[in-house]
């Protein structure tokens, strides 16, 4: 386990490197150390075929980057940072949506771009990957659905003005609508799922909308008159 003094040093070093870089690409010892660690972890992940095992490995390795990320987010001025962007994606895969969204706010506000192999922009990646992870977690009986709803609301607001394929935005609205429904926000869920269907008629929410409409009518009929 890393000592408190070591964690403090890592955070301060990252903050200094981010401040020194300004809006130029990240560089310096702190960044290069993280790049080296990232390279080794990436090789380990590439050699693993199971997606479930990959997620477990990411949960195992992500803490080593935590202080670096904190330092960059505290003092960064928008330097392109491939370590930061990779950690953002790994956090989503590991189920740490709050941690990923914290990076996403910084990345989108400063115009950071994703790693080279991604054809989508940062906002589109965040919208789609968070939606996929949220839909997966909503199927879990033990999921914190209140937190999931908060995360999806945050991502929808963060990416609302960004340009992306309609299919991606539809998926985000589908996940948001399901989270609203799970939390009893039936009217909001209906509107959100209708928006998803408008964006992509094959998004797979027609049956859900029919059930929501029936439930809303039943609730209205059960309300006392007068």
Tell me the layout of helices and strands.
Elements: H1 4-21, H2 29-46, H3 51-61, H4 66-75, H5 82-93, H6 97-110, H7 122-138, H8 145-159, H9 166-182, H10 186-199, H11 206-222
Helix pairs in contact: 1-4, 5-6, 6-7, 6-8, 7-8, 7-9, 8-9, 9-10, 10-11
Structure description:
This protein has 2 domains: 1-118, no CATH class; 119-226, Serine Threonine Protein Phosphatase 5, Tetratricopeptide repeat. The chain is 72% helix and 0% strand. The chain is built from 11 helices and no strands. It has helices spanning 4-21, 29-46, 51-61, 66-75, 82-93, 97-110, 122-138, 145-159, 166-182, 186-199, 206-222. It is elongated, with a radius of gyration of 20 Å. The model has no long low-confidence stretch (mean pLDDT 95).
Rg of Cα set: 20 Å
Low confidence ranges: none
Main sheet summary: none
Inertia-based shape: elongated
How many structural domains? 2
Assign the structural class, choosing from mainly alpha, mainly beta, alpha/beta, alpha+beta, or little secondary structure.
Answer: mainly alpha
Please state roughly what percent of the residues sit in beta strands, choosing from under 5%, 5-15%, 15-25%, 25-35%, 35-45% or over 45%: under 5%
Distance from first to last alpha carbon: 65 Å
Helix content: over 70%
Oligomer category = single chain
Residue-averaged pLDDT, rounded? 95
Strand segment tally = 0
In N-to-C order, the SSE pattern is HHHHHHHHHHH
Number of helices: 11
């Amino acid at each position: 386990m890393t000592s408190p003094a070591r964690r403090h040093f890592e955070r301060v070093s990252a903050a200094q490197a981010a401040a020194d870089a300004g809006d130029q690409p990240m560089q310096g010892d702190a960044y290069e150390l993280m790049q080296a660690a990232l390279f080794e972890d990436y090789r380990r992940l590439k050699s693993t075929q199971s997606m479930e095992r990959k997620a477990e490995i990411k949960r195992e390795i992500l803490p080593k980057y935590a202080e670096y990320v904190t330092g960059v987010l505290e003092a960064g001025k928008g330097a392109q940072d491939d370590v930061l962007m990779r950690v953002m994606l790994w956090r989503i895969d590991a189920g740490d949506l709050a941690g990923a969204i914290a990076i996403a706010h910084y990345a989108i506000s400063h115009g950071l771009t994703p790693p080279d192999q991604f054809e989508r922009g940062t906002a589109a990646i965040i919208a789609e990957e968070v939606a996929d992870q949220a839909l997966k977690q909503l199927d879990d009986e033990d999921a914190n659905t209140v937190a999931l709803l908060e995360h999806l609301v945050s991502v929808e607001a963060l990416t609302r003005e960004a340009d992306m394929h309609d299919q991606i935005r539809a998926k985000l609205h589908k996940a948001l609508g399901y989270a609203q429904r799970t939390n009893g926000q039936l009217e909001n869920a209906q509107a959100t799922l209708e928006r998803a269907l408008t964006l992509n008629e094959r998004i797979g929410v027609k049956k859900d909308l029919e059930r929501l409409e029936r439930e809303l009518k039943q609730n209205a009929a059960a309300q006392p008159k007068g």
